[in-house]
Amino acid sequence: MRQTVIALGAHVFDVQVRPVEAIPEGQGAALVDQIRFSPAGAAAGTALTLAKLGAGVRTAGAVGADPIGDLLLSMLAAHGVDTSLVVRRDDTQTSASVLPIRPDGSRPAFHVLGANIAYGPDDAPHTEIARTGHLHMGAPELMGGEAAAKILAPARAAGVVTSADLLASGDSNLFDWIAPALPYLDHLLPNEEQVLGLTGAATLEDGARRFLAAGVDCVAATRGARGALVVTADEVIEVPAFAVDVVDTTGCGDAFSAGFLRGLGLGRSLRECAVLGCAAAALVARGLGSDHGEFDLAAADAFAATAPVLEPR
């Protein structure tokens, strides 16, 4: 069964350097084990893992008319992602990040917003969206809630399932910025830090319920080594993370989103969707970059059935 998804929004070209414990001073240099690059971003990164899991995927967004954009799109295409809906910009570069990966897998980022912030409702392929089964919006905060609603509302009216993930870290002022889009989201897929920061809530469940009150039907939030929490009006579901040797956490949130959305497309329960999301995130975390791993749906399901889980902390 193939699920058709349009992943719309942030397209980022990532350069990963590992391991980095400190930035050399002055003109100093340091030897590292790996330097590589990969497609990333809340739209492109999610699309890549969705394609691995067997979904039919198209991406929509903006990249520069530059070599970085050429490479980003070619790498997505190599994974089976249709990039024909992506707009090329002559006046700005492709969004990109340099990620120094610490030995524990965590990483800061040096980031250029680039073409991502030049994309809005007038660029969106509304006709194609209305024909798809699922619209996933990566980083709606980049265009703002009112602009995002102009894309999400007609999609919902056409019977398209909608979801979104966030790119920005949690900031209480951001909630009002994205609020106009929330009533048009079936699923919101943030991380715990974003939920707590955006809502000011004391607990993740309380924060998720604020999003429900604003119109979202389901919040599936990642919690790092503690797995995920899914909250709807009727249930709260805790799913543990899988125990793996973490190399790099880049793209794990996008991989969780992809697994969760793939589960939805296959008609799985919310718990099963979150388990698949945690499995995809764990498989990506075992190597460098958001495109790590040659797994497919069968491999992810097998991993979820046999891999040990982390005990709650």
TrEMBL record:
Source organism: Streptomyces sp. R39
UniProt cross-references to InterPro entries, sorted A to Z: PfkB_dom, Ribokinase-like
Gene Ontology MF annotations: kinase activity
Superkingdom classification of source: Bacteria
Name of the molecule in the record: Carbohydrate kinase family protein
Gene3D superfamilies reported in the protein's UniProt record: 3.40.1190.20
Entry keyword set: Kinase, Transferase
Pfam families (alphabetical): PfkB (PF00294)
The EC number(s) this enzyme carries: 2.7.1.-
